[in-house]
Structure prediction request, 306 residues.
Amino acid sequence: MAAPLSLRASHWPSQTVRFIVPFPPGGSADGLTRLIAQRMQTDLGQSVIVDNRPGAGTLIGADAVAKSTDGHTLGLVIPSYAVNPSIQAQMPYDTARDLAGVTQISTLPIALFATNQLPVNNVAELIAYARKNPKTLSYGSAGIGSSSHLAGLMLNQMAGIDMVHVPYKGSAPAQTDLIGGRLHLLFDSFVSQAPMLEAKRLKLLAPGGSRRLPGYPDAAPIGDTVKGFAVESYFGVITARSTPAAARAQMHKSITQAMADPQIAGWMSRQGMTAVGSTPAEFDAFIDADIQKWAAVVKSLGGKLD
Prediction:
């Protein structure tokens, strides 16, 4: 097998490239992947197809990448990829052994939103209210193990409060309940909630990352009140660990060139993303650190996420 792999690596791509997305069609993850795949196809002169493999907290998509042997399979990942080793009783693959980084595409700000009916306007007021009313505040997320879920767990732990987690199948139904007052709080992508925020149908309490958000300079990051708190989402790309290093380098080059396209760069900016474009080695190190970070959080919670 050494000769064919070497040949494929030096002439990559030598066949159709498959780009796996662990979500259904639609949404920012799928949209970003399709834009990049289209540009890659133009630049490479080779077909680049998007293959949607949703389900199981992104495990199904990542497992398909791990088990690929053609050196031409890519996979999109989000923070759940780094969380899964700590919360899944049985992993279908070994993240470090079976998968390798290609690049981190971007970071994406997460923020804490509240229903207009909740009588708090910042994190300090929220913490005071939660301590006076334990187990009465509910916060929604896009699902168990999602970055929005873990953001709530971290806030509970670090602020010494006890909010109740309500998982949803995506952020859209959670938004509906938040606007209707059936849910008190929601951690979600800032861009996803921006239209409702501008329409004053919900309110922004704080960014989850270290920076203030454009247009909302008075909303201080959660970390300003809860020292050490910082949560952001991200998009990255992986491939099978068996993919030759030379092929991985070509994958990285093709994706980062696509990211530099004005149309794609503009789309990412409008979605609130900050482009990264890290090297394969840098993304490997980033994922390893993220796995360790979430392992510590899960361990501190007794190994249980609820």
Observations:
- The radius of gyration is 20 Å.
- The CA atoms of residues 109 and 261 lie 22 Å apart.
